[in-house]
Amino acid sequence: MFFIPFKAKAFYTPFFGILAFTLLLSGCTSSLIYSPTAGIPDRPLGNGEVFVSGGAELLPETRPYTFNRTGDYTAIGATIQVGYGFSSRFSLIARGSGDVEGKLSSYRSSFSLTGLYHWSRGVRSRWYWLNRVGTSLSNQTLEGSGVQTMALWQYDYSKRLSFTAGPSLIWGFRSFAKEPNSRGENLFPMGWGIGLHSAAAYRLSDQLTFQVEVAPIGQFDRFDNRNYWLFAPMASLSYRFNSSKKK
Length: 247
Prior knowledge:
Layout: H1 6-23, E1 50-60, E2 74-85, E3 90-99, E4 108-120, E5 125-138, E6 141-156, E7 161-173, E8 179-180, E9 186-187, E10 190-203, E11 208-214, E12 216-221, E13 226-231, E14 234-241
Antiparallel strand pairs: 1-2, 1-14, 2-3, 3-4, 4-5, 5-6, 6-7, 7-10, 8-9, 10-11, 10-12, 11-14, 12-13
């Protein structure tokens, strides 16, 4: 578990409480969506600095085979983020994503909270440790939850252009009780994944940045015993407030 500053605990404590409670209300849907991309700022947030971004993303399907279409592994989605710097090293980022393609009659969405810790490796590069907890919904019913961790390296190629890259691990679940799958086997409804993230960000101004990220994901469904390799890119615009306060 990573270090959480005192002010950040006020956000994490109720979030985990809500997560635990909503697990009791979970139902069942054919496939859910989630947002695995890193989506971090092009440079660390300073103390009191605010980060807002929005963009388009291909959101992975948790159970692609239920669509009975080969290669239908993602849904076109929209993602928004709001981040806040609690110190010169630690920030929190809240994210919401939704399926705008409308593959199912129900509206599917996902929400997550990310803790981002960084330390510098010279003037132009830095390391990040990212930890994320999230939920996936069908209409207004929580259907699944998950966690993700990443190790990311970021390099400033110039004053305007920066690159970010690194691996991630993902674990998702619907409940901790065994359920029958499509073959009548009683298994735990959960799975895991690995990702490799690469992003390029171009600073249009001191506050406005355009970013493109590509994220190949290996997804291993232990409930249905199926494995998938998919591609989850994202393109976004971000804006910073109180940038004069950064340290």
